[in-house]
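Contributing new records

If you add data, match the layout below exactly. Sequence lines come first and carry their own label; structure lines follow with theirs. Keep one chain per record. Anything else will be rejected by the validation script.
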Amino acid sequence: MRIRFDSGPSEIGSDFRAPTEIISAQTTAELPPALARLDKARHDGFWLAGYTSYELGYLFEPGLLPRLPAQRRLPLLQFGVYDQPRQTALATGTAELSQFTPLWDPAA
């Protein structure tokens, strides 16, 4: 799991590579232990980088919880635990867009 932020604590890019652990929660039952592991890692001085899915919001609103989609492509949350990010500036230079080529036909 590699995550890149365009800016970081030192005003240049933060590049998170090779996590020591990946913390993920696919189900509502997995969420409390995952949050506890994230808190412990942060408390122990590690850096965390990752995401929470849109559907995680269903768990924080009792009226929405019954509507939580059963089939999801992404975990409710997934974070890497890192010793520290590498501070690297973004590459500079010229860029251009070429002609777009669809990968699907109209029927798809």
